[in-house]
Design goal:
Elements lengths: L2 E4 L11 H15 L4 E6 L4 H5 L2 E11 L2 E10 L7 E5 L1 H4 L16 H17 L7 E5 L6 H7 L11 E5 L28 E2 L2 E2 L1 H8 L2 E4 L2 H7 L7 H6 L4 E3 L25 H16 L7 E5 L11 H10 L5 E5 L4 H13 L4 E4 L4 H10 L2 E4 L9 H7 L3 E5 L2 H6 L11 E3 L4 H17 L1 H12 L5 H22 L1
Parallel strand pairs: 1-2, 1-6, 2-5, 6-7, 7-10, 10-11, 12-13, 12-15, 13-14, 15-16, 16-17
Antiparallel strand pairs: 3-4, 4-5, 8-9
The protein binds alpha-D-glucopyranose (GLC).
Length: 482
Amino acid sequence: MHILHISTECYPAAKAGGLGDVVGTLPKYLTKANIPTGVVLPKYANKWIQQQEWKTVYQDVLDFYQVTLPFSIQQLTVGMSFPLYVVDIPSKYDRAGVYLDEEGNGYIDEVERAVCFQRAVLQWLAQQDNKPSIIHCHDHHTGLIPFMMKHCPEFVSLASIPSVFTIHNAEYHGTFSWDKVGLLPLFDGRVRGLLDWDYSINPLAVAIKCAWKVTTVSPTYMEELRVQTRGLEQLLQQEKQKSIGILNGIDVQVWDPATDQFIDSQLVKSVDRYKANNKRFLAQTFHISPKLPLITFIGRLAREKGADFLAPVIDRFLNKGGMAAFIILGTGEPILHQMLLDLKRKHKGIVDVALEYNEKLAHQLYAGSDFLWMPSRVEPCGLNQLYAMRYGTLPIVRAVGGLKDTVEDIQGTKGNGIQFKELNIEDATIAVQRAANLYLKKPAAFKKVRTSIMQLDFSWEKSATEYIALYKELEILTRSST
Ligand code: GLC
C-alpha cells in the first residue's frame, strides 16, 4: 500500500496554517509505520522551495481553457523523510504566497490556480505505471480530484483508486460559478449534478459527495459540521456512513522544549526554571512584569479565531482590576490590528502585540507564557493548544471542535485547562479571571497542572494508527470489488 497526499500546504515547503503542519507531519509517521507515503503540492516561488534541489520526473502540457500550459512534476532530491513532489506551473504558481499576494489580498485567478494544480497532478498520475494505492486530498483546493478521478475519461486509469478527503476547515468551500466549468476536463455529463451545490460548483461539497471516505480533524468538529457547515449540513448527514473525525497529532520532534533551538532556555530538569527563564526573556523583550500571569494569543487575527474578542475582553478584565499581562502574536484583519494597537497604547506595560507571522517567537511564547488563550468561534482541531501543553502552558479555550476534545476543564484535581462555553464578553472574561486566580491564588495547583500537561501524549502515533485503519479498510474494499 502506498499513499499520496495532495495538498496546497506542507511544512516546511509551504505553510499558511495548521494544514501545513499536518501534511508535513502525518506522512512522516505513516512512513515510520511502514506505509510509504508521498506528498505533492504546488511549486510556489518561496524561499524554502527555491533553496532546495529538485529533479524533474515528469513533463507535460495542460489543455487549459483554450490555452496550453506547460507544467512539470519535480521531486526533492534530499532533505525530507518522505518523497516530496512539487507541480511547477510557471504562469500560475511562480508567486511566493500560498493564498495571498504581498498586500494580503487573495489571488484573482485562485480558481484557475486550484483547478490546474489538480489537473496536472492527475495527468501525471494517470501516466504512471506504479500508481498510488490511495489518494488523500486536503481541503477544497483539492476537492475536485475525487470527482475527476471517477468521472473524467482522461483519468479512467485512476477511477478505481480510493480517495480520502480531509476537511481541515469547512469555513471555505472554494465555490465558483458554472461559467467556469470549461476549466475542467471533459467529464461524463450524466453526473453533472455531483458538481452542483446551490447553482454553483462547490469543491468542498463535490469532495464530500465523491470521496470514498471523508475525515475531519476532530470527532467533535465532525458532529458540529452536521449542524453547521454554511449550507452543507444535510450533505454531511447523508454521508455520515463514510465520515469520521480523527484528532490531529503534533510533531513531538519539532515541538520539544528540551531541544527547541528557537527558545531562550531549553528544558533541562526543572520545569520551574525552564518556565521562569523563558518568561523573563519575554518580559524583557515586551517590557512587562514577570510577576503577573502571562496570557498569550497566537494565531490569525480573524473572526473565526474569536480574535475580535481579544481587545474588549482584555479591556474589561483590566478595567475591573484584573491582574495579568497579555501578549498577542499574529496578523489578520486590519481593523483588529488597529483595535489591538489602541489597546496596547491604553494599557502600556501590561498589553503588548507583535502583529506579524513569526514562527520563532511563537515557540518562545509557548515556552514562556503561563496561559494560551483560544477564544475560537470555530476550531476544527487546533494545534496551538497542543503545542502549548507540551511547553507547560495552560490553555484557556472555548469549548468548540477539537478544543473541546483536547482540553478538559480544571475541576478539583482533574483537568488540563480552562474551558468556557459561550462566546460572549462576559463568559470569556470570567475564563481569563479564573486563569489569573489560579496562578495568583493557587500557585501549587497551577504548577501541578503545568507539569502534568507536559506529560500528555499528543503525538501522531495514535492518530496515524487511525488513518492506517481507514486506509486498510479501503484496501479491502478495492480488493473485494476487483
Ligand atoms: C485548520 C484548522 C485547525 C486545524 C488545522 C489542521 O487550520 O483551523 O483547527 O488544527 O487546520 O488540521
